[in-house]
């Protein structure tokens, strides 16, 4: 659990697929919150965390089932405001003396409600300030069970066709409960409901990147003391922000190891090295091991084999260079809060597998190192905000995600130096086109893949037999799902013409319009 000194809000996770969105909405309000699975939330845990308010998330279970998830009964006497969302509302009612009836999904006869619905107001409530200004309010429902009898002290403040207790509250105890999900964008004014709740709970909105920066500098200094820290630098936003924050805290006690595997974009290695050496004066080992990586990849075409080769070599190279740093006792990583949440997930599953070339998994134990993870309380957008706070250029902070294996997974089939050079040039033109048309910040990720086929073409009066390439651009929130970006035909035509005219070796361009799922964002 975090030792942060900010006002805290506890989110008890009952297994909803959108619990992270609750945290995102609160962080946007400058409120510090933590998600913890209900199994781990005891009253000792609550007292140690000392939250100013508690939110119960939604969940897939039925409170009518014996042994279904519950909150600690004593939390209702803890004296802080509580907000129940969907399953969280049903937990509150069941534990406080109300009644929940099973819907069709859980074997009952009630009417389920999934998708868009409209809530009609019943009286006024401070939680709903800014709601119902234009009549009924659109919300997103996703429930099988429903509350059939309110717990003592609660009153109704909103109804929907299939949820007669869509909004309920016990204002004397500051307990609030809604059957819908205000955290999803399908509830257009849901953010206002969270804003009202944290205001009623007395939060000061002290969760800012300026405050976080100062706090983490103090924590890093206290943790590290006078010891040396090494950081595996990928050149991505997360590891770069972590490195610069740590350098601000401990200066020359930090050494970054940048492993250049020869699979980076055009001029990328030079840009990363220049930024860290020239602008921040950070000790940096530029391990140019491109010949090693490309030699091992020669003749390999299976995507998993390529990934394993790159991952193993990365660890070997990183350790070789890290061993040259005397007195290193800490390894810095750019672990983010979504990774931490997953590691203590509702289902108790293992932490997410982070690619070894981004997160040098296994090395801390192998090398006897302790971890420094200054971003482990942050979401991706907060990392970008911290980067701005630290003075990183916006052109770097706003960069699209780039995979650890680099261009290897944008080159299906066998990798050759010729294909990589063609790919770099085509990708640079594509990104230049996107920037020139002012579209870069609208797109989550964009890149070119060079296809393992040659096609016949005609250029001038001659026949060509060159590679085809695929352009890929997607919109996404978190990379878990994605949709293709709807470029105009004019843009695609202009871009294809530039690539074919300016890049030797390509005579055909296609645009990939596959969503995720069923496809993935990358090609391998």
TrEMBL record:
Q: Which residue intervals define the domain GMPS ATP-PPase in the entry?
A: 207-399
**Pfam families found in the cross-reference section:** GATase, GMP_synt_C, NAD_synthase
Alphabetized UniProt keyword annotations:
ATP-binding, Glutamine amidotransferase, GMP biosynthesis, Ligase, Nucleotide-binding, Purine biosynthesis
PROSITE patterns under this entry?
Answer: GATASE_TYPE_1, GMPS_ATP_PPASE
Q: Which reaction does it catalyse?
A: XMP + L-glutamine + ATP + H2O = GMP + L-glutamate + AMP + diphosphate + 2 H(+)
Query: Does the keyword Cytoplasm feature in the UniProt annotation?
Result: no
Give binding positions for ATP.
234-240
Q: What is its EC number?
A: 6.3.5.2
Q: Which SUPFAM superfamilies match?
A: Adenine nucleotide alpha hydrolases-like, Class I glutamine amidotransferase-like, GMP synthetase C-terminal dimerisation domain
Record keywords: Nucleotide-binding included?
A: yes
- Which residues are responsible for catalysis? 86, 181, 183
Pathway it belongs to?
Answer: Purine metabolism; GMP biosynthesis; GMP from XMP (L-Gln route): step 1/1
Molecular function via GO: GMP synthase (glutamine-hydrolyzing) activity
NCBIfam families of this UniProt entry? guaA_Cterm (TIGR00884), guaA_Nterm (TIGR00888), PRK00074.1 (NF000848)
Its biological function? Answer: Catalyzes the synthesis of GMP from XMP.
Partners and quaternary state? Homodimer.
By what name is this protein known? GMP synthase [glutamine-hydrolyzing]
Recorded source organism is: Ruegeria spongiae
Q: Which gene encodes it?
A: guaA
